[in-house]
Write a structure and sequence with these properties.
The structure holds two protein chains of two kinds.
Chain A: H1 2-27, H2 32-38, H3 49-58, H4 65-78, H5 91-126, H6 131-145, H7 148-162, H8 181-219, H9 222-229, H10 234-247, H11 250-260, H12 266-271, H13 277-287, H14 290-318, H15 320-330
Chain B: H1 2-48, E1 55-61, H2 79-87, E2 92-95, E3 98-101, E4 104-109, E5 115-120, H3 134-146, E6 158-165, E7 168-173, H4 180-183, H5 193-196, E8 217-223, E9 228-233, E10 241-242, E11 244-250, H6 255-260, E12 266-269, H7 272-280, E13 284-287, E14 293-299, H8 309-318, H9 321-329, E15 334-335, H10 359-368, E16 383-388, H11 393-404, E17 408-413, H12 416-424, E18 430-436, H13 444-449, H14 467-477, H15 482-499, E19 502-507, E20 511-514, E21 543-544
Parallel strand pairs in B: 1-11, 1-12, 16-17, 16-18
Antiparallel strand pairs in B: 2-3, 4-5, 5-7, 6-7, 8-9, 9-11, 10-21, 12-20, 13-20, 14-18, 14-19, 15-19
The chains are: A mainly alpha, B alpha+beta.
Chain lengths: ~325, ~550
């Protein structure tokens, strides 16, 4: 019964998002053809009426909204969103070309921020009231107050502009003549280093603070006292008892973070001009590229919904209290 | 209980591993694929590097211009057209002296200017080895009727194209069309019949054959995600030896830094302060001549107050455009011609009325129009909006200058798509735009003001309501006598200067920053590349015709 109710919630959210997905981009002022023919900073072109009509027809923009909507729905079912207006190639291809790069930087930084955040939080809680706790706590608070793009720009100025040790932008050296795979990997790593550091720093503080608070609470519980009384070593108490129990509320947060993987990071990718999903999203919005926006939003929604659902399913297994509550619910 | 928790944690861990595993997997497969491509690149590089006195590779900076096939390149900005012109050729082309034969080695025009007969070069090979014939030319223009070429080049002027023999083509026009050689057959690329005759949907046609042209370069790699191109020389080019073996277009976030850090070899910019800085650091600089560009204010002629030309003239007098140009462009500022055509264009008429900075004149007209100043020096009932699509120093300077004559100007900044829509729907008072294309054939005056050009900055769908101007605009198009045509264009400039549908603030030169030690063959194209692009990556500069 509970599962059905939950499923219904997910399905209705999905339907709502699918509808919103179609209408939201179209509520923006201006349309794609205006953008395509407007030209950039350095010049624009003359588009004759004939050319403009051809363009409208090609992109099915001269159809009524209702026809466009049914086509959109049909596309959803077949995962065919049509052609991106700006890239003139299938939305699916445009996205899959950029997705690995986003997964690389956001994935690594999510992993790093989880590991570092949880470890530091735990340590901090263990040394609660001590000097090292104070220091990390204040540092993390300060870090959480710095906006991502500012941090990114500072790193860029220091490491790329002044010291010149890391590249200025992009994901890899273009048309690099190196033959060795190792060189390629080093090149990619060099380009990814600063975005990863920025993203990690950006989401580290939140995880740290949450972990620290939870751990401090757990440490005060009687069962920890009991464990210490049993004569268990610090390590065992910390890892087996404190860590495990305080990490529980973080599971949801971690799942949300993973869901955010596919959304990329608009700010960081823009600062480093990194060719990922976030930058693509920004370009698509500016260009009013409806099909691309549909594809991107749907991908993000689906991934977040799926992971949420997974968290919902896994959580009772992790936390006996919730499981018991559900059992009570059933009877 | 404990086991269950263990199991769940294990599961969680597995999911985490799978998630991250996905990303690393893709990363590795991505990089190996690139390396294999690079390995082949290296091999072919070895083969060509044996030839001496040619340049191995030049890296230029420019943004993403889309997939460079004739149907998919990006039409916002000249980059897409130029990338395409490396792969595909046209019947004529332009170099530093003007129109030159290209795929057509010679041509003749009938007395009435309605028929052009072109003799094609005979040893032209498509990149796939097939031979170019007159059939390809006939096919190209037929194909563009169904699938428009998304750049300029008004093919509706053409009535028929027929092949006389394998290397002779005859064009028949609907009416004499003065810019035919430069702005029609000099722009529309010839595409291979054997490829495109089977393609119904050219925009998303991504088969490698979509890039088979006759041009001096072959696209070796297009890095779509970053918008970067690597072109390699076509060793069998009919026009001669290609001097630069590889041309790469890079897309750095910051051009200036990229030049300084050696990530690119050359770049194009209109920022004079950057140019000065780079010159000090040992770069060479070429300035666009003719400038070919304008930064201008478009007036909404339907606006209840602005539709009175006296108000537009008053605003023109109130703006110290010389100072504005000096402040913004530095160098040798070129104040905007009230008649639009830049002073360094051969079509410029020097007798056109100009609006020197004159506050008294401006105040007088504004008083006459009944916009009286109140106690605080602000004119009653005159409050205007100026729309800009990017952070515009021009708008801020205008605001200050107009304040001096008591006119309140409100700056309204919107994004590019909103800007275009507002222009198209005439929902603005004043708008500032900067663009190129003013040095080529002056037929653009007709296109702008007769509602032919469906673009954002030419009052789309709107005609400039002036009978004499409209008449002249149509007449000049068919006038084949250059002197007579110049007279008409001069008259059109007079009308534009008097009526001021738009006011050019200044003409903005572009600068090419490069190192002559890398390659020194660059030149300013006469009247700009194709329809007046004031840039330097003209393929004619990269070819040695004697070899």
């Amino acid at each position: 019964m509970r599962i059905i109710r939950q499923l219904a919630t997910y399905v209705s959210v999905l339907i709502f998002v699918v509808l919103l997905n179609f209408w939201l981009p179209r509520l923006l002022p201006g349309g794609p053809v205006d953008f395509l023919t407007a030209g950039g900073d350095q010049g624009a072109i003359f588009v004759s009426e004939v050319q403009k009509q051809a363009m409208l027809e090609y992109y099915h923009l001269n159809n009524t909204l209702w026809v466009q909507f049914t086509q959109y729905l049909k596309g959803l079912l077949t995962f065919d969103f049509g052609l991106s207006f700006t890239y003139k190639s299938p939305v699916y291809d445009v996205i899959t070309l950029r997705l690995p790069w986003t997964l690389l930087i956001v994935g690594v930084s999510t992993l790093l921020s989880i590991i570092i955040g949880l470890a530091l939080g735990l340590l901090s809680a263990w040394k609660h009231q001590g000097r090292s706790d104070r220091l990390t706590f204040v540092t993390m608070l300060a870090l959480s107050a710095v906006p991502e793009f500012l941090l990114g720009m500072i790193l860029l100025i220091v490491f790329s502009v002044n010291m010149g040790v890391l590249p200025l932008s992009g994901a890899e050296t273009a048309f690099n003549a190196s033959e060795h795979v190792i060189d390629r990997v080093i090149d990619v790593a060099k380009h990814a280093a600063l975005p990863i550091i920025t993203l990690t720093a950006g989401s580290l503080a939140g995880l740290y603070l949450l972990m620290r608070n939870e751990a401090i609470r757990v440490i005060q519980e009687p069962f920890i006292e009991f464990a210490t009384a049993k004569g268990l070593g610090n390590r065992v108490v910390l890892l087996r008892h404190v860590a495990r129990n305080s990490a529980l509320p973080l599971v949801t947060i971690i799942f949300i973070r993973i869901g955010g993987l596919l959304a990329g990071s608009v700010l960081v990718e823009t600062v480093f001009s990194y060719p990922g999903i976030g930058k693509l999203l920004q370009e698509a919005i500016l260009a009013r590229d409806y099909p691309l926006l549909h594809g991107l939003f749907l991908m993000m929604t689906l991934s977040i919904l799926c992971l949420n659902m997974l968290a919902d399913l896994i959580y009772p297994h992790l936390d006996p209290r919730i499981r018991e509550a559900h059992k009570g619910d059933k009877s | 209980m404990l086991n269950r928790i263990k199991f769940s944690l294990l599961m969680l861990f597995c999911i985490a591993v799978i998630m991250t595993g996905c990303s690393t997997n893709e990363k590795i497969s991505g990089s190996t694929q690139v390396t294999s491509e690079l390995a082949t690149a290296k091999n072919s590089g070895k083969a060509t590097s044996l030839t001496t006195d040619s340049v191995a590779r030049i890296r230029m900076a420019w943004g993403n211009s889309g997939y460079p096939s004739p149907f998919a390149f990006s039409s916002s900005g000249p980059g897409g057209f130029l990338r395409n012109s490396f792969l595909f050729d046209t019947l004529t082309w332009k170099d530093e002296n003007g129109v030159v034969p290209w795929l057509a080695k010679s041509w003749s025009v009938s007395e009435d200017g309605l028929q052009y007969t072109f003799d094609l070069e005979e040893n032209v090979l498509w990149h796939d080895g097939n031979r170019l014939t007159a059939d390809d030319v006939v096919f190209s223009f037929g194909y563009y009727q169904m699938h428009p070429f998304m750049w300029t080049g008004d093919i509706s002027q053409i009535q028929t194209v027929t092949a006389i023999d394998d290397h002779k083509v005859k064009f028949t026009l609907n009416q004499p069309y003065a810019p035919f050689l430069s702005d029609l057959v000099g722009i529309v690329p010839i595409i291979p019949k054997h490829v495109w005759q089977n393609v119904d949907s050219p925009l998303d046609y991504r088969d490698p054959s979509a890039l088979v042209g006759t041009g001096p370069y072959i696209l070796k790699e297009y890095d779509e995600k970053s918008g970067q191109y690597l072109f390699t020389a076509n060793d069998h080019y009919f026009k001669g030896k290609v001097l630069v073996k590889e041309v790469a277009y890079m897309n750095p976030e910051n051009q200036l830094l990229a030049l300084q850090k050696g990530e690119v070899d050359s770049a194009m910019t209109y920022k004079y302060s950057e140019v000065q800085q780079l010159e000090k650091e040992g770069f060479d600089v070429l300035k666009s001549a003719p400038t070919g560009s304008a930064v201008r204010v478009t007036f909404n002629l339907d606006h209840p107050q602005l539709k009175d030309k006296r108000l537009r003239q008053a605003l023109a007098y109130a703006l110290d455009r010389a100072e504005m140009a000096e402040k913004i462009t530095g160098g040798d500022p070129i104040v905007g011609n009230a008649g639009i055509i830049p002073p360094d264009s051969p079509w410029y008429s020097s007798s056109v009325k100009q609006y020197e900075y004159n506050v008294t004149e401006a105040e007088q007209i504004l008083d006459e129009l009944g916009y009286n100043k109140n106690a605080s020096g602000v004119r009653n009932g005159l409050k205007l909006n100026v729309m800009v699509s990017s952070n515009s120093p021009e708008a801020q300077i205008m605001q200050e200058m107009l304040k001096k004559v008591g006119v309140v100007l409100n700056i309204q900044q919107v994004d590019a798509a909103t800007f275009s829509t507002a222009m198209g729907e005439n929902k603005y008072d004043l708008a500032i735009t900067g663009h190129i294309g003013l040095s080529g054939d002056p037929d653009y005056l007709r296109q702008w003001f007769l509602g032919e050009a469906s673009n954002s900055w030419a009052a789309r769908g709107k005609q400039f309501d002036h009978a004499t101007f409209q008449h002249l605009a149509l007449e000049q198009m068919s006038e084949l006598d250059t002197d007579k045509r110049k007279e008409m264009i001069g008259e059109m400039q007079n009308i534009l200067a008097e009526e001021l549908p738009t006011l050019v603030l200044y003409h903005r030169p572009f600068y090419y920053v490069f190192k002559s030690s890398d390659f020194n063959g660059w030149f300013n194209t006469s009247g700009g590349i194709a329809d007046g692009i004031p840039l330097w990556d003209n393929k004619a500069a990269l070819i040695d015709e004697d070899n």
